[in-house]
Structures are given as C-alpha cells and as structure tokens.
Amino acid sequence: MASLYHRARVMTCAGTGVDPLGMIADGAVLCEAGRVVWVGPDEDADAACRALDVVAEERIDLGGRLLTPGLVDCHTHAVFAGDRSAEFALRARGASYLEIAAAGGGIAATLVPTRAASDADLQRLTVDRLVAARATGTTTIEVKSGYDLTVAGELRLLRVIARAGAQAGVNVVPTLLCHVIPPERKADRDVYVRELAGVLVPTVAADGLASAVDIYCDEGAFTRDESELVLRAARDAGLGVKAHVGQFSDQGAAELCAALGALSVDHLEQVSDAAIAALAAAGTVAVMLPGACVQLRLPPPPVEKLRAAGIPLAVASDLNPGSSYSSSLPLQMWMATTHFSMSVEEAWLGVTRVAARALGLSDRGLLAPGARADLVAWNAEHPAAIPYQYGANLVDRVIVA
Ligand SMILES: [Zn+2]
Predict the structure, then answer these.
(1) Which pLDDT band holds residue 138 (cuts at 50, 70, 90)?
(2) Contact 265, 284 (CB under 8 A)
C-alpha cells in the first residue's frame, strides 16, 4: 500500500548551499513498501503518482506541520541494568566522574547488575528505553554492548540488543564496545586485550552480531596501542571502526582512527590540531555528545575548528546510566545549539543525515527516493522550534517503514 503524507512543511535534509535542510514549504512525501518513492511540492503529488504508476490509497493531511526524516541516534549505551542516580547526586555536589569511578562507581558499578540480570529482564529494560527514544522522534538507534566485558557476556548483550529493537519497533544498529578493562582482568590486561582482538571481535563478525567495533581510548580505559590492536582486528574482520576519543585526555586515538578510516570519533573534548586535519582528510564523522559533556561539566569540543576543517558533525544522546541518562535527541539539539555553538541547521543534520553517515548508512536520515520511509511529523512549523522549546515533546507522530 502507498501512503501520501501531504500539506506538510517538508525538511528533506538533502539540501545544499544556503538551504542545507532542503525545505519544501508546501510539500508531500509518497511512500510505498517501506521506502520513500517521491518527495516534492504538494501540487505535483498527483502527477507524480500517475508518472510512477502508484495509487496512494492512504492520504494523510498533516495540516502544515513540519515533516522530517526519522531521527538517527548514532551513539547510545541503552542495554544495562542497575541504577546510578546516587552518583548523579554526588556529581551535583561537585564530585568528578574520575573521582566517582576511583571510589567504585562509574562503569564498574553497572557491570555487576548487568551481568546478574536475566536475558528477559535486560531485554525489557532496553525495550523501555527504545520506546522512549521513539516517542521523541528516533527511528534508528545505535546501541553499544560494553557493560559485561566477558567474551560470552558481550555476545549475550549484542543478541539482547537485536531482540529489543525488533520488539520496540525501531531500527537498531548493534555495536560491539570494548569499554574498559574489567576489574577481574586488570592483572592480565595484555591477555584480555588479545582475547578481544583474537576471539571476541572475530566471533562478532562471523555471527553477524554487529556492524562496527568501538573502543574507549582514554584515561582509565584502553591505551592507544591496545585500541590499535582491537580496531585493526575489527577492520581485518570487515567491521566498521569507531572510538570514544578525548573525553578526558588526548591519547592520540583520533589520529589512529583517521589512519584506519574510522566511521566516527566520538566525544573529542580533547583533540589536537594535527588530529583534526587527519580526521578531515579521512572523512571521519565527529560525534558530539553534549549531554555527557554538560553533565560532567567538561569543556566543550573545539566545534569551530572542526567546522572550519570541514569535518561532518553528528549529535547523539550517549544514553548511558552514568553521564547522560536521556534518549531525547531534541534535548541534545538544544544543548548542541546553546552549549556547543552549533547552528540549528547543523544540529538537525547532526541527528539525521550525518548521524546516519556515522553508522555507515546512506538510506536514512534524509527524505529522497529510495530512502527508508522513516518519518516524523512535529507539532511545529519551523525547524528551530524543536530545540527552542526544549524539554517539550513536539512529536505529532512517528512512522517507521
Ligand atoms: Zn559513549
């Protein structure tokens, strides 16, 4: 069945030059079999149906609402159990992330309840978070493993992620995350890192459990050389590579990621000018995570330098139990425009087309023939209204495929 969404202010996110959002004031989008087949002015819709030999059995009048691609969240840690609200309260009183981690909090505090949770409980918790993300406009969401850290446990998390996505009615992109060295493996960390590169990564690739491998290269996590061993194994196995880079300190991982042709480098609060040049040459996306940055009271990344170098900027929620417990991309757009010096247009492209690119996907994050029919209608007319009315949920309806 074909559906025509019409009488809409269409944002294609496929524009250029002075109109990067590709706005169509009185627009329509024709969808069939889960794909967009035509986008254009409302007055041309009937002629387009005839030319394409498509009968629009369903016509949805959007009453002048803004109609955009479904949002793409390209960086989340949505599969976990346990509660760390006490850490939030400590930080609100001034304790730092690294102080809390050193006192037994942080990522290690999520390992124990996640390892103990049943598959069914983990899936239920994850589905709840995916449903909440969808309610604020997200139709594709990357979800990283990383809160078990044993080989068998990480494989289990990736399987839970795939099942949760199917149940929640959103498109899920599972990523293997090598997060930190688990406490019980600190004494033989070299052996652990070789297990990741030699066993876990090849198994994930062989079983088709993830399309990319991410590694947290920072103080308290993996070193640059350890990251290189794991990411080279990922690339050799045919998987995409990405990394958490420079959240607290610059370990040189951005240059490594550029050399490996990474899809994205994420965080980038600390990054050198040489690394920025290398990332620009490699075409790697920089993923901005303003929620975590603001909550941890870190200095923002050098957005002006990244922009000047021509590096594509994505914006993601970093949904996780420690530093950013939110699945709302509209809220991230507000922080991107108020705290990260990004324009409204950059923020929108950052949660749509550029976010899709950070996942290696070209069939979403824009409205154009052939793209997935993932759409969001908003109770708003102007793109700026979404970050402007921060905290409000302006979603009218979400359409997935
Ligand atoms: Zn993260």
Answers:
(1) very high
(2) yes
Q: What are phi and psi of 77, to 5 degrees?
A: -125, 60
Q: Under 8 Å CB-to-CB from 6, ≥6 apart: which residues? A: 27, 28, 29, 42, 45, 59, 60, 61, 62
> Nearest-5° angle of CA 347, CA 348, CA 352?
120
- Using DSSP's 3-state secondary structure scheme, residue 315 falls into strand
Report whether 39 contacts 17 (CB < 8 A): no
Ligand 1 center to 13 CA (angstroms):
25
Q: Find the mean pLDDT for residues 366-376.
A: 98
Give the tens place of pLDDT for each residue, 162-217: 999 999 999 999 999 999 999 999 999 999 999 999 999 999 999 999 999 999 99
Tell how far the Cα of 395 is from the centroid of ligand 1, in angstroms. 26
Å from CA of 214 to ligand 1 middle: 9
Spacing, Cα 359 to ligand 1 middle (Å): 14
- pLDDT per residue as tens digits for the range 50-88: 999 999 999 999 999 999 999 999 999 999 999 999 899
Distance (Å) from CA 318 to ligand 1 centroid: 5
Label residue 98 by pLDDT band (50, 70, 90): confident
CA angle 170, 174, 176 (to 5 degrees): 165
Amino acid present at 271: V
Asked whether the beta carbons of 75 and 316 are under 8 A apart, the reply is yes
What dihedral do alpha carbons 40, 44, 45, 47 form, nearest 10°? -130
Using the mean position of ligand 1's atoms as its centre, give its distance from the Cα of residue 33 in Å.
34
* Contact indicator for 154, 209 with CB cutoff of 8 Å: no
8 Å CB contact between 213 and 230 = yes
pLDDT, position 103 = 76
Identify the CA nearest to 316 among candidates 359, 355, 270: 355
Rounded to an integer, what distance in angstroms lies between the CA atom of residue 398 and that of residue 401?
10
24 alpha carbon – ligand 1 mean position (Å): 35
How much of the chain, in percent, has pLDDT values that exceed 70? 100
Q: Give SS3 for 224.
A: helix
